Structure of Putative transcriptional regulator:
Amino acid sequence: MEILKDRYTITELSERLGVTDHALRYYEKEFNLNIPKDSRGRRYYTPEYANIMFKIKTMRDDGLEIKAIKKILESENIVDPPPVVTDNTFNTLTPVYSEETMLDIKNFFNEFGEQLTKSFSTEISSAKEQIKNEICKTKLELGACMDNSLRKIESKLDKHFENIDRSLSLWREKNKRSFFSRISKAILRKKSI
């Protein structure tokens, strides 16, 4: 983002970034940003903070989640990771497992993995068979539909050609009579001459 000022109010920056004031306050809280405030207690954003807000908004526009953006900004040392809270009131012990227990756990997960693989394989085979059956059924239905359509077209064509044959026969009959009448008239004329 091109920085034009030494400091921005929350309203100025929100308008410049195209986000709400609430969004900037939310980012401030989520990313543990210590935005400075003036003597009246109003936030103002320095160029550094304005650029951080711009980066956050750009990454959100690209579809990144808040957690992912935090990781990116922490890895680039742009924001500090949240402080680690240690509570000394509880004495936490790390459980220690024997080799036998670890082997049992490993065997359990191996068996679970095998069962899961078999289950998925069975489900996939079943789904594959169902899809195959549906495709065959659809092919048969489509074939029947095509046969029906072809029969209808053939029937229409037969009727059409019958009409053409009838029309041709009528035309021939009409022209045949007129041909004979013309010939007979011509013959009669010649006799009369």
